[in-house]
Design goal:
This protein is of the alpha+beta class and 493 residues long. The chain contains 23 helices and eight strands.
Length: 493
């Protein structure tokens, strides 16, 4: 009979231990570092390299003359037999000085980085000083500015701003206090910033336009009283309610459309304003030359001065009696040297992977890089991954956020990947070609009678493209083109 514990649980069950053998795959620190570097675009990689140079004293920028062998390369073997074993500390030391991350020869000239523009938050804070606010109103203004979304709208409840200030600064405020300061913030540059709706944003901007401007009075009435009808393009209803004709309505709509419904886009950051291509492609002698853009990348190498210091330590007799100091020094130098080698390896591996992926994209889309838009072939990540023998996730990291400069402009690498659409001739073409045709159709449509998705589908079928209406609707949404009724305009004869 099995013994039982006080808890009523058989003792044999409590002592039941199981052993299990399980395979688990884990990434090494080197692999993690490589993956992180692989997904960085050119500008971010430059910053990452500078951070590593500042953090690791054994890693430094090298020059072209550093490619020669070190003058102290020949060493007395007897020195390596002393207690301070240089070979243990620095394996393969003969290769360290020439251990470099490769940089394209054509990219030696350094470019001066472009200074980023100020952020929207800084832009508003710089103007806040002109409002002559007291301490309490300054707290409110800071809370409002800090709560503005990226598109320039204030979506936080006024009551929440009051509660935050009361909790953080022990200031008792009313919602009227916040609304009073908000009124001033909304009149800063850009006009309409911190608006709580598109309607409020447009009204603020219309308010700043002189009243004698043609269409001003009707535009204000449309936005304040008939905004729902305006947003749905129910123009006949607006004309009936305001008792106006097409000429008056057209003047008002033109004035409304001159306003900016996205005030948050008024100040542009460096990342938004400039695209630094990661690849440079040109055609020479009938073949494509592919370069990795490395204009501001330094040549990385192991520090010459630290190497000399290590060699001096190995030959200095006084280190024989300082085992504790030797151990700490060797441990520090070993970790920094390994870190430097790993980083240089990761940068070099990134370069090879990036070029490998780009070569296959160019090879697959040769017609595009030769003739330009309209010659794109259907391509998915798996196609490139299979060709280069890598995982799809690796190709995805290379493609994401990277750009290429070719004879036809600058393109995001994602542009070259698309689904296929079959034609009546049995040829599979890129859906980007179909999207381009849809865009052209809508640009050329009669604005008083825009093309519906069903009509666009019929026109595509006339051109030989087998495509369903729901697919046309999906492509239109991806192109950020509104439905037909929202594209209708008033055109005066």
């Amino acid at each position: 009979m099995a013994s039982v514990t006080k808890l009523g649980i058989p003792l044999q069950n409590m002592l039941n231990l199981n052993q299990e053998l399980r395979l688990q795959q884990k990434l090494s620190p080197q692999q993690i570092q490589y993956i992180k570097l692989l997904q960085l675009p050119t500008l971010a990689l430059e910053q990452r390299i500078q951070q590593e140079l500042e953090k690791n004293p054994l890693l430094e920028e090298g020059g072209l003359d550093d490619l020669t062998s070190h003058p102290n390369e020949e060493s007395d073997e007897s020195n390596n037999e002393e207690e301070f074993d240089l070979e243990d500390l620095l394996p393969d030391i003969d290769d360290l000085y020439g251990y470099k991350a490769r940089v394209e020869d054509q990219q030696q000239d350094r470019e001066i980085p472009i200074v980023a523009a100020e952020s929207m938050t800084d832009h508003l804070r710089n103007q806040k000083g002109y409002l002559s606010l007291d301490r309490r109103d300054t707290l409110i203004a800071e809370q409002i500015i800090g709560s503005i979304d990226e598109d320039g709208y204030l979506r936080r409840e006024i009551a929440s701003i009051v509660d935050d200030i009361a909790f953080n600064y022990r200031e008792e405020l009313s919602e009227k206090d916040v609304l009073r300061v908000l009124h001033h913030i909304q009149r800063l540059d850009p006009l309409g910033i911190a608006a709580r709706s598109v309607q409020e944003c447009l009204l603020i901007q219309l308010e700043s336009i002189p009243e004698h401007t043609p269409g001003h009075e009707i535009a204000t009435q449309v936005v304040s009283k008939l905004f729902s009808a305006f947003s749905r393009r129910h123009y006949d209803r607006i004309k009936d309610r305001l008792n106006i004709d097409d000429v008056a309505l057209k003047s008002a709509i033109d004035l409304i459309q001159s306003c900016n419904p996205k005030p948050g886009e008024g100040v542009i950051t460096l990342q938004e304003n400039y695209v630094i291509p990661d690849f440079l492609i040109r055609k020479a002698n009938g073949s494509f030359v592919i370069q990795l853009n490395a204009g501001n990348f330094p040549t990385l190498t192991i520090s010459k001065s630290y190497r000399e210091m290590i060699e001096n330590m190995s030959s200095d007799k006084k280190f024989e009696s300082a085992e504790a100091a030797d151990s700490k020094t060797r441990q520090f130098l070993r970790s920094k040297i390994e870190s430097a080698k790993w980083f240089i390896d990761a940068v070099e591996q990134r370069r090879k992977t990036m070029l490998s992926v780009m070569r296959e994209i160019v090879s697959f889309q040769e017609a595009f890089f030769t003739y330009g838009e309209g010659h794109l072939r259907p391509l998915i990540l798996k196609d490139i991954a299979t060709r280069i023998g890598m995982d799809i996730s690796t190709v995805s990291r290379v493609v994401n956020g990277k750009y290429v400069h070719c004879d036809f402009g600058v393109y995001e690498l994602k542009y070259f990947f698309s689904e296929g659409v079959k034609t009546d001739a049995g040829i599979t073409v890129s859906n980007k070609e179909v999207k381009s045709i849809i865009t052209s159709m809508i640009e050329e449509e009669d604005k008083t009678d825009p093309l519906t998705d069903q009509v666009v589908t019929a026109k595509l079928k006339e051109q030989g493209y087998r495509i369903a209406r729901r697919t046309v609707s999906k492509y239109r949404r991806q192109l950020e083109i509104p439905v037909a009724r929202l594209r209708r305009e008033i055109v005066l004869s």
